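Sample pair:
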Amino acid sequence: MSRRLLALWLVACALPGVAWSQVDDEALRQAKALFFDRQYREARAAWQGVVDAGGGKEAQSALYWVARCSESLGESERALAEYERYLAARPSDRALAEEARTSRVAASLPAASVRRSRKSSRPAPLETIRSASASFLASSGFGS
């Protein structure tokens, strides 16, 4: 009898976790759909909701998507700050981290503005892009 009660208690404790992960999945689907429907303001709010809810990797990736929404809305300074926040979280997704480092918004801002907004010892995104471009051109023999 006590084993049955223990089993029922374990199942009851697990159910809220299952419902929570379904809510998270729905929130992620909604945020993605809004972004790809080009409803960037609503998508940013949805992605921010994922960030606020926490949840590890999803919340970390959501930081990137918040910045992408701001970039798509033409809010360059805000997007740069949000990319910085994402990179400061030391993301595990290397592809998204590289996208954040080399975003169009970083390349479009004046170099002085990029440097002024940075608070870490990492090179400014514009400098990283220039360095990578120079390395590529040198290795391809361009201009020789």
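The radius of gyration is 21 Å.
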